[in-house]
Amino acid sequence: MAVLHHAFRCAVTPGFERTVLDLLAAWESADRERLSTMAVSRYAELAQREDINSAFYLGPDGAASSWLQPGFISPGLAALVTLAKDFVPVPTLSASDDTNHHRLATHLPALGWSADEIDFLIHGQPIETMLQPYASSTDQLKEGKFRHTGGWTPPGMTRKLRESIDRLILAPPSQADEAVWAWNLLNESKALDDARAMLAPLNDDDWLILSITH
Question: Does the pTM exceed 0.85?
Answer without folding.
Answer: yes
